[in-house]
Amino acid sequence: MRFLAWAFNSPKPAWAYVALGAAALFFTRMTMNGWASDAGQTVYDDATLLKAMEGDPLLGSRIPKIATAPGSTFVVVTSKCGCNEHTLAPLSDALPPNFRLVAILQADDSELESLRSTLPNMTLIPDVNGEISSELNAAFLPRTYLLDRLGRVEWIQKNYRQSLVEALNECLARRQTQGGTP
């Protein structure tokens, strides 16, 4: 209570105004309307992301650069990051057996070698120039998609606040409510 009384009622030295202004700026930046990476990446607000997602591929459109296989394909587009091993591993455990997992990483083949040994059940596709990411309109990373057995887009992640496993669970739940098999 003393702090509040001091903050609102008494005259303050100049350094106090600077400190209070910095605190206000920090908390304004971390509001629910915006998000930022600790790595110093661009801060986007919801309106900017919604505008960026207008370029998403249409449901039912084919993505030819991703080879298809029997069953459905759960696709994750992610950036080059040392955390990918820990981020992608839980998906292998959560994925139903009739699904294939494909990770499109903005890295070259040599950078994917260590991941290939630790994630053997996952197909890793390098996307150095971002061609596949652009075709999928990966407005935020990581972003997930579901492709059917013909390589057509069946579902696209819209909520950037979800973990990869949460996105997979939403995808499976929606698919089940639409009469598909999980």
Task: Describe this structure as you would to a colleague.
Helices cover 40% and strands 18% of the residues. With 182 residues, the chain is α/β, with parallel strands linked by helices. It has a domain at 57-177: Glutaredoxin (3-Layer(aba) Sandwich). The strands form 2 sheets. It has a 5-stranded mixed β-sheet with strand order 5-4-3-6-7. Helix 4 (84-94) packs parallel to helix 7. The longest helix has 16 residues, at 14-29. The protein is elongated and about 70 Å long. The chain starts with a helix and ends in a 5-residue tail after the last helix. Mean pLDDT is 79; it is low at 31-41.
The CATH superfamily name of the domain at 57-177 is Glutaredoxin
Number of helices: 7
CATH class (first level) name of the domain at 57-177: Alpha Beta
CATH architecture of the domain at 57-177: 3-Layer(aba) Sandwich
Task: Please specify the SSE layout and strand pairing.
Elements: H1 2-9, H2 14-29, E1 34-35, E2 44-45, H3 46-52, E3 72-78, H4 84-94, E4 99-105, H5 109-118, E5 122-126, H6 131-136, E6 143-147, E7 153-156, H7 164-177
Parallel strand pairs: 3-4, 4-5
Antiparallel strand pairs: 1-2, 3-6, 6-7
Helix pairs in contact: 4-7
